[in-house]
Amino acid sequence: MTPVYKRLFPYLRPHGWRMSITIVANLLAALLDGFSIALLIPFLNILFHQPATAIPKGLVSRLIDATVGGRIIPGDEMHSLRNVIMLVLAAVILKNLLVWIAGQFGATLQEYVTRDLRNSVYRHLAHLPLSYFTQMKAGQILSRVINDTFETRLILTQIVTQSLQSASLVIVYIAILFSISWPLSLIALIILPLLGFSLQPMLRKLRRGNLRRGNVHGEMTSVLQETISGIRLVKASGTEAYEEARFADGSNKYARSSLRLTRLALVAPPVTEIIGTLIAVLILWIGAWQVLRTGAMTGATLLAFLTLVLRLLQPLKQLSQMRTTAQSSLASAERLFEILDSPAEYQRDRGTRDTATFERELRFENVSFSYGDAPVLSDINLTARKGEVIALVGPSGSGKSTLVDLIPRFYEPTQGRITIDGIDTREIKLPALRSLTGIVSQETVLFHDTVRNNIAYGAMSKYTQAQIESAARAANAHEFIIELPSGYDTLLGERGTRLSGGQRQRLAIARALLSDPPILILDEATSALDTESERLVQEAVDRLLQGRTVFVIAHRLSTIAHADQILVLERGEIVERGTHAELLAKRGAYYRLYSLQFGDADEASMVPSAG
Question: N or C: which end of the chain has fewer CB within 10 A?
């Protein structure tokens, strides 16, 4: 059993009773199928005026004696043939009933195991650290969760239905063949090692090829996902042809990869059939010799034997094809297990405190952080007291977003520590730590759900309608919500596309107000809005700031003039800190940034911004 099969086995264990019924039903169906073929011997013996039970001693002989012996009427061949035919019909009907039962339980098993695997992958994916998602393309992740899960189900289909059924038939047929003639059976079974050796190199190539094809499919999905997410930019830029070319390139690579694998897989059936036919011809020649020259077999026994051998080819062919087609599924399963093998946040969380409070201050003490070998933050020291507003300014890439991402431990400091009321945040379990923080980002995240459920995201039963409406009023969102077709029950489009930018921002602020976190991370909420929307959003932001410790990533410096501390970052270091007035007076980095936005910083500083 390969490591992949071993890892899939635990997903079968909870559904063991379904698998047991499937196995038993397939085995009984195979026994009845073999029995119905064995009945050819008495039928042909009667037809050619031979003793009905003229069969070499063994399992088949005893079975025929027990089932047919009492139904053979000496001197009445037609009635004897009728009785044999009735037994054949009964065996075939019962066999097909069992095949149907096995198929029903096999299909149920397949779907439930696939569901459990899909849920397991998604559950683990949701708990992976943020760094995983920054390293992987969204299209690659989508391809693995959806396509690879679907491909993996083929392993279960092959094992539970086709391979179990085929293996049962092979076992029963071989047992009957050996009962009839063990020398001929040994010759017939030469096919097994021949098939195994002839197909093995191809199977290895298929596995490697399917791994490559899965990655190519992920790249193609990434292009599609990026185009759909950025469709406004694509249309505004008139770059439809460019995106078409990108997708066509990925699509062509995927088609060529699939074609190579298909050509390789198509080799297996003719190889199987040619080898099987050679074995059948050899058996026919040797069997004819035993019938005509030595009398070791009757013609009826040889015909039944040949029928069984020919019937044996089909399940053997299915088993060989199963190994071929399963390579794609095994490659998909390997990619799924790459996700499951990535350590989740809770697996790396060494925190021991189940609860956390914020009463006094949050401190960064000599904190540094690196992405691999690339330093992002260096020796950061700051103290944010309860109720203070801390603004972070600086050019793109200076480390502002990374700094605030360290607070809820989206990333861990590589040096130094972050404390809340003197407690290292690494001592606090992630759920408790993150319950202290709320985030309102510049790119508002809304889900394809109702307005109510977006505001009370993840805790719909925790809040009353009155609390949700109160938060919406405070965020200046209630008025536009009640004008929607179904008010708070209006279903928003994906990512809230039915709303304007200002409306989406106000819903995000309402969400933060409702959860009421003591620490708030605010990524400039008023950028890229029209004047009226900016006014409404800024009013909501001002209410949101009251009584909280807030970290503001500021792009528009007019919104942070009244911050308690302004930190200027450059290349991951704090190069200046102070109030708005203090920093302008220094005429340093902050002064230069302010002058770039507002012209003469000395004149601009005379009129404090209302923000």
Answer: N
* pLDDT tens-digit series, residues 88-142: 898 899 999 998 998 888 888 888 888 888 888 888 888 888 888 877 777 778 7
Q: Provide the residue ranges of all domains of the chain, joining segments of one domain with +.
A: 3-345, 365-436+554-606
Statement: 3-345 belongs to CATH 1.20.1560.10: yes
The residues, any chain, with a CB within 8 Å of residue 339's CB and separated by 6 or more, are 121, 124, 125, 128, 144, 145
Rounded distance between C-alpha atoms, residue 135 and residue 126, angstroms: 15
Q: Is residue 509 a contact partner of residue 475, using CB atoms and an 8 Å limit?
A: yes
The C-alpha atoms of residue 320 and residue 265 are separated, in whole angstroms, by: 11
- C-alpha dist (Å) from residue 238 to 22, 231, 418, 528: 57, 10, 47, 22
Q: What is the DSSP letter of 343?
A: P
| Averaged pLDDT score across all residues of the chain | 80
Inter-axis angle of helices 149-157 and 299-341, nearest 10: 150
The pTM of the full predicted model, rounded to 2 decimals, is: 0.70
- Cα-Cα-Cα-Cα dihedral sign, residues 91, 94, 99, 102: negative
Q: How deeply is 551 buried, as exposed, middle or buried, from its count of CB atoms within 10 A (0-12, 13-18, 19+)?
A: buried
Say how many C-beta atoms besides its own lie within 10 A of residue 16's C-beta. Answer: 10
CB 424 within 8 A of CB 353: no
- Per-residue pLDDT of 551-608, as tens digits, reads 988 877 877 888 899 999 999 999 999 999 999 999 889 998 888 877 655 544 444 4
Q: Looking at the DSSP assignment, which residues form a beta bridge with residue 365? A: 417
Q: Max Cα separation, the chain?
A: 125
Q: Tell me the per-residue pLDDT of 187-221, one tens digit each, with 9 for 90 and over.
A: 777 666 666 566 667 666 776 777 677 777 777 77
Domains 3-345 and 365-436+554-606 share a fold: no
Backbone angles phi, psi at 405, to 5 degrees: -65, -20
Do residues 58 and 179 touch, judged by C-beta distance below 8 A? yes
Topology annotation, domain 365-436+554-606:
Rossmann fold (3.40.50)
